[in-house]
Amino acid sequence: MGEQELGNTIHREIKNLPTKAFISVKEAKLSDGGEYTLLLRNPGGEKSVKVNVMVLDKPGEPQGPVNVTGIMKDRCCISWKAPLQDGGSKISHYIVERRETSRLVWTVIDPKVESTCLKVTKLLEGDEYIFRIRAVNQFGVGAPLESAPVLIKDPYLPPEAPKALEVSDIKKDSMLLTWEAPSEDGGSPITGYIIEKHDKEGVRWTRCNRATVTDLTFRVTGLLESHIYEFRVAAENAIGVGEASSPTVFFRAVDPVFKPGPPHHPRVLDTSKSSVLLSWGKPACDGGCEIQAYIVECCTTTAPVEPAPEAPAEEAAAPEAPVEEWVMCTPPAGIKHKKYEVTNLKENQAYKFRVCAVNKVGVGEAADVSGVIVAQDKVEEPDLDIDPELRNIVSIKAGASLRLFIPIKGRPTPTVKWGKDESPLKETAQVEITSSYTSLVIDKMSRNDSGKYSITVENASGTKSAYIVVRVLDTPSAPINLKVQEITNQSVTLAWEPPLLDGGSKIKNYIVEKRESTRKTYAAVVTNCHALSWKVEPLQEGCSAYVKGYIVEMREYTPIPEETEEAEVAPAVEPVVEKEWSMCTPPTGIQATKLTITDLKEGGEYQFRVCAINSEGVGEAANVHGTVVTSSRAEAPEMELDAELRKVVSVRAGGTLRLFVTIRGRPEPTVKWEKKRDTNSQEWQMAAGNVARTAFKAGRLTHGAEYQFRIYAVNRYGKSTYLDSPGITAQYNFKLPGPPSTPIVKLATKSFMIVTWNEPVNDGGSPVLGYHLERKERTSILWTKMNRGMLKNTEYKVSGVDEGMMYEYRVYAENIAGIGKCSKACEAVAARDPCDPPGMPVVTAVTRSSVSLSWDKPEYDGGAKVSGYVIERRDLPEGRWTRCNFTNVAETHYDATGLTENSQYDFRVIAKNAAGLFSEPSDNTGPITVKDDVDPPRIMMDVKYRETVKVKAGETLRISADLAGRPAPVVSWTKDGKEIELRARIQIVSTDTSTAIVVKDCIRRDSGQYVLTLQNIAGTVTMPINCVVMDKPGPCAGPLQITGLTAEACTLSWGPPQEAGGAEITHYVVERRETSRLAWTLIKGDITKTFYKVKGLLKGEEYVFRVLAVSKHGSGEPLESEIVKITDPFTIPTAPMSVDVTDITGDTMTLTWCKPAADGGSAVIGYVIERREKTGMRWPVKLKVVDSTKTSITLGWSKPEWDGGSEVISYMVEKRVGEDEDWIMVTSKGEVKTTEYTVHDLKPDTDYFFRVSAVNCAGRGEPLELTEPVQAKDILGKSLWIYLTPL
């Protein structure tokens, strides 16, 4: 448990016997669970075993902290994490409680919360709460997790104060206030404003408005004359009233008695060669009343000024004449706005301007426009302000409207030209052009509208163009160049080219259809063709082709004039220029036999020809006789007045006057209507000036007055003679309305009824204002009124009925004259729930004399069991409904017999319950022809199944389809070409009209292609559906290969997983473990390739490696390797051969030998020579450097020849750095038990000395030391041997 040694405690007892060891924990708690390790050790070694202990108990506390979000004035959301310790049982739910910080009692919010979050409602604003959560499993309720105190308050604030409060239109009893909305509304929309006033003689602020004020203006009334007031305004939202604005200055409530002051800062906004645009502000003093108008005046200098835009104003304004004559530019009454354009000025003439304000007292002081203004055009290059979104590709769905809005600039106003793909726009395009913007609107976009739209603005200063690429998302256009490549007696090979327009998306596949020339319907040959050709087979020999369209072509006819100077006789044949034929129709032709050709030149001479096309290709052309000259026919406008309109036409006041007049003319004339107010007067008034139709509604007529109307037809060639109508008297005469129709109970239930009726036939001459509904029980004579106010509609829901009671209803109509007579009472209707109609009958079989039907039961039986059904039929097209069954039909299917062959019928079903109530009829089946009919099977599926169906692991996959075909087709499902094996998790549900496959708790191997096959005697049809289960990836493709094995590294390689889980593999995780351990160690967690070199391994250790693929759905299943032992790929060389002693002297001997037979895979780098006395028994003990890297040195040695009488149990390794005299112990006690050890963490280019000592039960023996220093460096796997001598 946590790698700590355990001892005896009050609750824990440990006993160790010679043959047994046990531990006993009394009153176990959750904290006593975990991994226990039993370690056995003696001089012969160690042995350990691990035991996992799970304590079954209540769960621990959930993981914190408790996150509180979404705090509002009465609610918030809390969330937490599941407890780390579940007590050995799944957490079933959580208990959530709360308490106010001012109280000690906890209140349960929800005793059964299954998720780790909860929305808490019904909290008190301003209170501080603490929440706690407890987990629950089958053993009980766990410890609680408490949140920090949370203050419940609304996140929104009251609005800020309104701005720019102004007072105007001051009178003796009222003043007009205006203001601007606050810059911040506190997060909640402003619902209104509160206006307050303060009398200077008083001390309190009083509210001015009783009702809510939503506008930014308000007139304060009820003021006392000559009293002085100040005002303030506060905004209000759902939170409350915000801060009030700063008070205004004091205003005296008196009528104005003086003229206004000069307008504020008059200035020039724009100039042209004939106009100047001026602007100014409101006067600082309005004279105590509202400014009624403004007057603009101008005067000229004595001499024109040459155009010099940069000349100082003082030079241009120097007048030569001593007297200035000011001329009024505005109408005498002035203008209301604070902006005015002075027109009809002389080009390059210098002018002075001034502005005066006018109130009810008179004209105020004038304010001069600074300097002298010259009437001349400002020059500015055209520019387009294109939105950044329009600079990208604009995608729009087919059928939607394209709206391009582009602001434009330029002086003078530039001309705007729109185009598409360097050609004019189509006629339906709507272009709007103003001085500041242009817009293009194209309704009902189609695939042909895709392309590059250009806009060009041009004025005298230059030209600016821009392009906007529009892509219409639509179905692709028809493929082009459909050709028949090969025809045999049983097949036809077709070839085609991709469509010119792909609808904004890549072409997925093609659908090939065929039909015989004697039939009108097409049948699918293939629905998933990915090539540009297809062989259609089998076909019936001898079938003929059909004309599927026409192609119309034209060419311009241009005579060549003779060049003779004085030709007296014209040539017999006029030479012409032979131009190429151009196609007027799409390449695929048109189906109609009539075509209107537009965009021809007026006065042009053309020739036309027509070709028919069928599946074999384009046929021979037929020329239209002669040439055709385009010209416009002009017809003067005419009109015809109906005989009824030549009499006096009477119309009721408030009614609608409609006059229909037939007009003619080419081009289509415009219409103007004129109205004569009085037949005794000769003054005509314009009623309408641009009427497009031949009918006109005249409004605002005076009751009792007689009118006469005059009509003109107008086109571009002029105005027709007028046509006068007879006198028409506007009058009304109304009476009480007649009775409405008998009411009908549209719906009756046990708790309410819906009653409907129709308007009265006679409304008494005045529109019906409303209705009154009365009700009585069938056994009563007392009628009771149902509605309090007048009913505006002809339908009313009556509540408060008693179940089972019979009721009758009647209705009154009311107009402006009063309430009319009541309608007839309807038949008594019982207050019972109705029975729902059955499902729409489905035709399951048809013969030459019968039709088999089936239907679904009603969803609701009206409170009584459905006892039977009535089946009705009618002959089409105009037959009446007649009953088919004369005995009760209790089942939901029926065979209608005795029908006439080749006749058409319609069927419906009515349900009857045990209470004797009949339902409404079901939906009709539609026309059914009675004949022996065989239809091939058809599959109707949702369009979403055309794409790859994706479902998350653990969820349910459902693929459903509707079926059709006679006889009913046989249904079969396959997956990846194999029949699906039904299990408890996989079900297939099929009926005569539908089928569905349901896969519950989807797993990764449920991905694949599901194929639905239908088959009957008429044929076979299949429908593939691709499905991907979104899950963690599967194991990587094995085996996990290990190559490049060295003493401390190896290379792993693997393949990507075959089951990716519906997502891209982002990376791989590689782990390892020693065979002596159970825990896995992460090597690297972000590998993007399928191979990796593992370093830092220990020589001689046995390892197992595993690889896991990772996607966005998580880590997949691991792929494990075989056990591999880390060893050096090289071995020691064999012994040298043929050792011989030559050249012997008194103190030397010369040795010779031959190379060893095998070098161990690495070149021999040297030899070790040993000697011993003839009487000696031992060779010197040797120590070698087995391997070396930049940071480590591996030492090897042999066992001591004498072990001191006790077995050597370990070795101790020491090191010394350079010239240091101190030895440093490298190994720990008992660590090294073999004759090899690697010293790590060494520094390169540093001299090291090493020595090794053997240890037995008596202690440490004499050490052996390296005689030469060694440096840590890469020696590429070669071995270095060094002699050691005893110290």
TrEMBL record:
<dbReference type="InterPro" id="IPR036179">
    <property type="entry name" value="Ig-like_dom_sf"/>
</dbReference>
<feature type="domain" description="Ig-like">
    <location>
        <begin position="937"/>
        <end position="1022"/>
    </location>
</feature>
<dbReference type="InterPro" id="IPR036116">
    <property type="entry name" value="FN3_sf"/>
</dbReference>
<feature type="domain" description="Fibronectin type-III">
    <location>
        <begin position="61"/>
        <end position="155"/>
    </location>
</feature>
<feature type="domain" description="Fibronectin type-III">
    <location>
        <begin position="161"/>
        <end position="256"/>
    </location>
</feature>
<dbReference type="InterPro" id="IPR013098">
    <property type="entry name" value="Ig_I-set"/>
</dbReference>
<dbReference type="InterPro" id="IPR003598">
    <property type="entry name" value="Ig_sub2"/>
</dbReference>
<dbReference type="Pfam" id="PF07679">
    <property type="entry name" value="I-set"/>
</dbReference>
<dbReference type="InterPro" id="IPR003961">
    <property type="entry name" value="FN3_dom"/>
</dbReference>
<feature type="domain" description="Fibronectin type-III">
    <location>
        <begin position="837"/>
        <end position="933"/>
    </location>
</feature>
<dbReference type="InterPro" id="IPR013783">
    <property type="entry name" value="Ig-like_fold"/>
</dbReference>
<feature type="domain" description="Fibronectin type-III">
    <location>
        <begin position="478"/>
        <end position="572"/>
    </location>
</feature>
<dbReference type="GO" id="GO:0045214">
    <property type="term" value="P:sarcomere organization"/>
</dbReference>
<dbReference type="InterPro" id="IPR003599">
    <property type="entry name" value="Ig_sub"/>
</dbReference>
<dbReference type="GO" id="GO:0008307">
    <property type="term" value="F:structural constituent of muscle"/>
</dbReference>
<dbReference type="Pfam" id="PF00041">
    <property type="entry name" value="fn3"/>
</dbReference>
<dbReference type="GO" id="GO:0048738">
    <property type="term" value="P:cardiac muscle tissue development"/>
</dbReference>
<feature type="domain" description="Ig-like">
    <location>
        <begin position="388"/>
        <end position="471"/>
    </location>
</feature>
<feature type="domain" description="Fibronectin type-III">
    <location>
        <begin position="739"/>
        <end position="833"/>
    </location>
</feature>
<keyword id="KW-0393">Immunoglobulin domain</keyword>
<protein>
    <recommendedName>
        <fullName>Titin</fullName>
    </recommendedName>
</protein>
<dbReference type="GO" id="GO:0031430">
    <property type="term" value="C:M band"/>
</dbReference>
<keyword id="KW-0677">Repeat</keyword>
<feature type="domain" description="Fibronectin type-III">
    <location>
        <begin position="262"/>
        <end position="377"/>
    </location>
</feature>
<feature type="domain" description="Fibronectin type-III">
    <location>
        <begin position="1179"/>
        <end position="1275"/>
    </location>
</feature>
<dbReference type="InterPro" id="IPR007110">
    <property type="entry name" value="Ig-like_dom"/>
</dbReference>
<feature type="domain" description="Fibronectin type-III">
    <location>
        <begin position="1036"/>
        <end position="1130"/>
    </location>
</feature>
